[in-house]
Amino acid sequence: MTKPSKSSLKHYVLDTETGYIHATPYGFNIYAADFLDAAKQFKTSRPFSPVPYYLLCHSIELSLKCFLLGKKAASKEELKKREWGHYFGRLMKRASELEIDSLVTITPEHLSA
């Protein structure tokens, strides 16, 4: 197979709209597990990368939102709003009020991080 010449290549512009996934608490849990798996498998030759930390943080955020949705403490629409958004402190505070620590061990070190 020969490589096409630059003059034969065509350029296309695709206009897209925002897509939405309507996930259940179970779906949030699956996505959280996927992000955690990706963080565990992440490899780089560089001395530092923020990528595994991002993946871990996103996994934690989705897990907290899964818990809140499952407890019916917040709706998906509420969790999208700025007051919840990516604010771990607020998510964790509400999850603690609903006794998330009965399901998982949360140490003071976890909370300070």
Protein model, in words:
The chain is built from 5 helices and no strands. With 113 residues, the chain is mostly helical. It has one domain. Helix 1 packs antiparallel against helix 2 and helix 2 runs parallel beside helix 4.
Name some characteristics of this structure.
0% strand; mainly alpha; 113 residues; extended
What would the average pLDDT be, to the nearest integer? 87
Question: If helices are DSSP runs of H or I spanning 4 or more residues, what is the number of helices?
Answer: 5
One letter per element, helices H and strands E, the order comes to HHHHH
The total count of strands amounts to 0
Strand content: under 5%
Q: Roughly how many Å is the radius of gyration?
A: 20 Å
Q: What is the helix fraction of residues, given as a range?
A: 40-55%
| Count of the domains | 1
User: Biggest sheet, in brief?
Assistant: none
List low-pLDDT spans. Answer: none
Structural class: mainly alpha
N- to C-terminal separation? 54 Å
Overall 3D shape:
extended
